[in-house]
Amino acid sequence: MHNIPVFIDETQSEEQQNQLKRVAEHWQFSVQNTLPAGLALTLEDGKLAVKDFSEAKQQGVFVDFLSGSSVYRQQHGGGKKEPIAKAVGVKGQEVPVVLDATPGLGRDAFVLASLGCRVVMMERSPVVAALLADGLHRLAEQAPELEEKFRLIHGNSIEGMNTLDEQIDVVYLDPMFPHRKKSALVKKEMRVFQQLLGSDDDADSLLAPARELAGKRVVVKRPAYAEPLADVPPAMAITSKKHRFDVYISTH
Q1: Which of 90, 95, 116, 161 has its CA 20 to 30 A from that of 83?
Q2: The whole model's pTM is what?
Q3: Could you give the strand order of the β-sheet that contains 243-249, starting from the edge strand earlier in sequence?
Q4: CA gap 244, 10 in Å, rounded
Q5: CB within 8 A of 11, min separation 6: which ones?
């Protein structure tokens, strides 16, 4: 896992350059003014993005809680009947406080917030945390009632779960797993994430502190073909077309 530079292009507006300078200063990233040879942070259509400059015409990867697919899922998804809702225990008026300890680009966190959950996102990569912070900033401008349901913590979840002084009902885990799917979107995002973060070699170490912290349950999202996290069988599993949600019920 490593930091990457912020690329500031002299052709960008003063406002854009200042925005990128603030990002670099806040997250302690270096600034680069010449065209990068590989991954760098930049602005694309007003969004902070990680872009692979070694590939021509490569679009950046960014967090967009208000993307068409996210909003469509919010409006037309299965709601409380969605597998993820059943897995975390959203039913009736019961909406748990969820710690998403592996938020990635925040898509599942957004679904949970849309269902009414308060969601704490804990992200150890400063680059991914910067993308999430940028996404939350834009969400606050357009849907403040949703943004208020989020809290972002920059830190290592394995260590952070041991010291988090907050009542958490559900810990949600979706560690990186090699994708078999060949779609261009998954390939692009996974390629960028694997370049940026490396492999999730310590993913198994998430389960024990998650089970210690969660007041009600731990939910682990896995590809349908994958073995349980840390080879610990869950109390139950809720399946969807491509994924399985392994549920570990808290006993403390």
Answers
A1: 161
A2: 0.92
A3: 150-154, 118-123, 97-100, 170-173, 217-223, 243-249, 236-239
A4: 47
A5: none
